[in-house]
Amino acid sequence: MKLAIVGVGAVGRSVLDLAREYGHSVTAIADSESAAVDSAGLDPERVIARKDDEGRVGSRVPEEALKSEYDVLIEATPTTLGDAEPGFSHVTRALERDRHVVLANKGPIAERYGEIRRAERASAGEIRFEATVGGAIPAISTIEDFGPEHITAARGVLNGTANFILTRMAAEGLDYDHVLAEAQDLGVAEANPSFDVQGTDAALKCVIMANVLSGGEREFTLADAEVEGIEDVPGSALSLASEDGRTVRLIGEATRDGVRVGPRLIPENGTLAVSGTRNIVQFETTHAGRLNISGRGAGGPETATAVLSDVGRLE
Questions:
Q1: Residues recognised as catalytic
Q2: Percent of the chain at pLDDT above 90?
Q3: pTM tops 0.90
């Protein structure tokens, strides 16, 4: 398959680097200001070297990548809220050309799901978005494989930054501000960590799962979610919880009725008490009981594997 990549962050770079290993070629790539296009396939090392040296991937304008010949558009630009632009327009333009789309960008699926699905129905192309939930964890494909009607709820720990902070607070008896600063020093938390610690990132992932679970009967956006972050969780709360054999995790839950995200008391040695940056998704099924899938929920290579698995499903 010929891939065009839009977005050259950690995920876009990793898809570019790993595509050949999965049997695909990248024929176009674009950042916000430039593009490189080669129908014979781009050299990943040359593209990344130019990006690192010059701040741009090529000498062409981004529009040329979007207009180029490809089989699958990889939408890996940063997640935006509200109108979900420019990702939404990238997706619909590709579908209008009857091309497939694989998303790592959560915005279009979380904020404009109905519109995206309508554009897909009018196209010979297909959209896939495994990488929008839990990095390498196969959350979306699990729902699809079981059938949305056979899963009553999906819940779990879906943000590594928040989980790292809560894990460290509990293990060392430290307060939130101290551990946040440590996480930023280690590169686990962004300089502006609000997207993670306020619960927004986890909520977007749960909104996406709720949309899939609903099977088109309802459409959810971030505005429909009940969201509480971890900024006001005191270290003393974790200490008290530990005395009772419990701990605190930022838990997101998606059902056909809605989305809730917030700090929850859970058993200290329970399944959901994953540590560090690890994520877990737990499904309640109608006939197979409770199913748990855990793994790395973020990272360039990890998320790129989910992207490339989706590409494989399109072949």
A1: 205
A2: 90
A3: yes
